[in-house]
Amino acid sequence: MHFDFSVLAAPERYKLMAAAITPRPIAWVTTVSVDGIRNAAPYSFFNMMGSEPPLVAIGMMRRPDGTHKDSARNVIDTREFVVNLVAEHDAAAMNFTCIDAPPEYDELAHAGIAVTPSLAIAPPRIASAPVAMECRVLETFDKGATTVVLGEVLHFHIEEALVDPARLHVDTLAMNLVARMHGAGWYTRSTDLFQLERPSFAAEADATKALPTR
Ligand SMILES: Cc1cc2nc3c(=O)[nH]c(=O)nc-3n(C[C@H](O)[C@H](O)[C@H](O)COP(=O)(O)O)c2cc1C
Q1: Does ligand 1 have an atom closer than 6 angstroms to the CB of 206?
Q2: Contact 159, 171 (CB under 8 A)
Q3: Which atom of ligand 1 is nearest to the CA of 70?
Q4: Is the CB of 44 inside a 6 Å radius of any atom of ligand 1?
Q5: Which pLDDT value is given to residue 107?
Q6: pLDDT at position 23, please?
Q7: Does residue 95's CB lie within 6 angstroms of at least one atom of ligand 1?
Q8: Ligand 1 centroid to 177 CA: how many Å?
Q9: Which residue(s) pair with 116 in the sheet?
Q10: Domain housing 110
Q11: Is 214 a domain residue?
């Protein structure tokens, strides 16, 4: 079966893509408006794009009335945001912050979420997040109903017990991160793992040479 996206409506395309492109990491984005009002909201159209520069990308869709969501408005206006990663212990609080509240509503205060000041930017980071990345906007662009945000990571905060500072080894499993799955409210843990070795062309060529020829 195939679907020609040129004849589907946006909500139908969303249904297919969002249920198939899974699991998605969640950026729990903290921002501050030009009026100094704090905002927090989860965004799962999110990933790392590279490390030179250290780049993250987030897709922020517009509201049904065509206006920017608060996070997008704040990011465009102030060019600063924090990406907090979501551990299972923060899942309920993260979910609360997706509430469709007006801009003057401070989700962090209403959910009782503790924050810590950032080093280089105004938006605070979430204290209970195992990892928080202070980001400066490199570029935002609007494509249809989506604002794509490209941010450069300025500071990477990680809970001390989760990293070996000499080898820069992160204890990924101990972070207990959750990711977005399908439908209205499904999430997954990162506990069902398997490993694959990366192939090397040199090793592959050697193995081919060793085969008997006819
Ligand atoms: C786990 C999760 C992931 C989400 N991901 C996105 C996303 O990638 N893009 C988006 O526009 N909205 C996403 N949403 C919905 C926003 O969080 C929601 O619209 C929220 O009210 C936006 O808040 P803001 O106006 O304070 O920025 C997501 C919601 C949840 C619960």
Answers
A1: no
A2: no
A3: 25
A4: yes
A5: 87
A6: 98
A7: yes
A8: 18
A9: 125
A10: 5-209
A11: no
Task: Give the model's pLDDT for residue 129.
Answer: 98
Helix (H, G, I), strand (E, B) or coil at 141: strand
Give residue 1 CA to ligand 1 midpoint distance, Å. Answer: 30
Tell me the per-residue pLDDT of 106-130, one tens digit each, with 9 for 90 and over.
889 999 999 999 999 999 999 999 9
Q: Which residue's entry shows tokens 């794509």? A: 148
Q: Using alpha carbons, list the distances in angstroms from residue 31 to 52, 57, 80, 177.
A: 24, 15, 7, 21
Q: Find out whether 164 and 176 touch, Cβ atoms under 8 Å.
A: no
165 CB contacts (<8 Å, ≥6 apart)?
Answer: none
Q: CA 38 to CA 123: how far, in whole Å?
A: 7
CA 27 to ligand 1 centroid distance, Å = 9
Ligand 1 atom closest to the Cα of residue 29 is 27
- Which residue's CA is the closest to the ligand 1 atom numbered 4? 43
Return the DSSP state at 14.
Answer: H
The stretches in the chain having pLDDT less than 70 are 213-214
Number of structural domains found in the chain: 1
Closest atom of ligand 1 to CA, residue 46: 8
Residue of the CA atom closest to atom 10 of ligand 1: 60
190: three-class secondary structure by DSSP: coil
Q: Whose CA is nearest to atom 7 of ligand 1?
A: 43
For residue 59, being part of any structural domain is answered with: yes
What CATH number is given to the structural domain containing 158? 2.30.110.10
Within-domain flag for 82? yes
Classify residue 196: in a domain, yes or no. Answer: yes
